[in-house]
Amino acid sequence: MNIWAYILKRILLMVPTLLGVIAITFAVIQFVPGGPVEQMVQELRGRAGVHESAGGGGGAYRGRQGVDAERIKEIKALYGFDKPPLERFALMLKGFATFDLGKSFYHHSDVWELVKSKMPVSITIGLWTFFLTYLISVPLGVAKAVREGSRFDSVSSAVVLVGYSIPGFVLGVFLLVVFGGGSFLQWFPLRGLTSDNWDQLSLLGKVGDYLWHITLPIIASVAGSFATMTMLTKNTFLEEIRKQYVLTARAKGLSENKVLYKHVFRNALIPLVTGFPAAFIGAFFAGSLLIETLFSLDGLGLLSYESVIRRDYPVVMGTLYLFTLIGLVVKLLGDLCYLWVDPRVQFESLAK
Predict the structure, then answer these.
(1) pTM above 0.85, yes or no
(2) SS3 letters for 206-239?
(3) How far apart are CA 178 and CA 245, in angstroms?
(4) Nearest CA to 308 among 23, 21, 20, 28?
(5) Tens of pLDDT, residues 249-293
C-alpha cells in the first residue's frame, strides 16, 4: 500500500467517525431540557408577570398562564425548531460540508467568525505551552536518563512530581494570590492578554506588555504538562540505552556522546515525535477552560463551556465538528510522523 492510498483510506474512514460523533451529540441534544425555545418562553412569561403585577387595578395575575401557541410557533421558527429533527440534521450536515457552522443563538453572529475571534487566546496559550513543554522536558529527560540514580535524578524527579501533582487551576490561584496583587506582590496583571493602552504602546512596549500578561497563565498551564513528557523522555532513553546495539557501539570504542546522540537519540525520539501533532493540538484545547476562566481569557475553552450552559446549540455542534475533525486529522499526521521517523514501519501495520 503506497502513501497516497493509505491517506485516502484514512480520510474515507474519517467520514463515518465524524458522522457518528455528530449524530450522537445531535440526538442527545433533542432530549436536553432548557433549550433556547424554553428559555425564550420562560423569559416572556417573566416579562408578562412583571407587567401584570405592575399594572395594579386589582386585575388577575395572568403571567403564569403562559405564552400563546402562535407566539411559541414563531419562537420555534426563529431558532429553526419548526422543522423535524431529521430535516434539521440534514441541513446542518449540508452546512458543515461547506464549513457553514450556522449562527449563534446567543451572540447573534456566525459560529465560524466567533471561533476565529476566540482563536488568538487559545493559540497563545497552546503555542507557549507546547514549545515550553518540549524545550524543558526533552533535555531534562535526557539528562535524567544519563544520570539515572544520581542526586540530580532524585531531586529533579521530586520537583517534577510535585509540579505534576498540583492541578493547573490550583497553581494559577496560588500565582494570582502571591504575584497578582491578591495578598502579597502585585507584579503581574490579573486578567487579559494586553493592557488597555495597548494601541498607544511602541512595538517593544507591546512585546513586553504581552509577555507580562501571559507569564502567570503559561506557568500554570505548563507546570502539569511537562512532568509527563519529562518522565516519558527519561524512560524511553533508558529503554534504548539498555539495548544490545548500545553495548555493541560502546564495545567498538565509540564515545559516549556519539553513542547517545548518533544511535540512541533517533530511536528514543520515535514515541516523542509521533506524539508531536497530538501534543500540539492538545495544548490548544486540553485544560484551557480552567486557565481561561481563572485569568479572564476569552478563548475557545470558555466559549465552548458557555455555549453548553446557554444551550447555544449551533456553537456546541460547530465547535464539536471542528474539534473532532482536527482530532482525526492529527491522528493521521501522527501515523505519518511515525513512518517518517521509522521507515521500517509498514502502512499495513498502521492501518490495523
Answers:
(1) no
(2) HHHHHHHHHHHHHHHHHHHHHHHHHHHHHHHHHH
(3) 51
(4) 28
(5) 778 777 777 777 777 777 777 666 666 666 666 656 555 677 777
